[in-house]
Amino acid sequence: MGLKVGQKAPDFTLPSHLGQKVTLSELRGHNVVLAFFPMAWTPV
Amino acid sequence: LRSKEGRSERALFLIDKDGIIRYIDIHDIDDQPDNEVLLAELRRIDPQAAAAATRRAAVEAVEKVDLPHGGIVMYCNNWCPACKKARAWLGARNLPYREVDVPNTPGAADQVRLWANGNVTTPTFDIDGTILVDFNEQKLEEALKQANLLK
Q: What is the DSSP letter of B14?
């Protein structure tokens, strides 16, 4: 996707590691730390 | 989340309050950066929030310390000239007070900093919960009268 520092982050909804859905735009107004990582025992 | 070599990776992003990407770090899954790296970036992105967090931490630290309350409590040390004057002033009026020796009392300096806008000002008075920073005869007298500690 070629994201760069300074760009607007594209909105998304993805499952969190706790199984809940996380939508980036719902966190607007907060500083957000995103960590994308493969879950243990998954073939991602 | 696979590198070209087929290894698993982790991708970290910091997105600020306006939705702008401020930090990107993609690395091998085994190379997790220290949390301090991310915290430093967050402090850089939002110094105001970082200062507020530091203040909150100071408040929590002070809450855990057992400092005297009630009556006249004077935060001071054994050398400051204004502390000596304040002792003489209180002594001349036969007013009972407790001293907190700031350099030798854990948490006392943090407490004074919270009251005195980040400075360790001595003397600082806690008069039944009313805080007076520095020794000012007139203000001290007023506060003592308000607290019914002086007629």
A: E
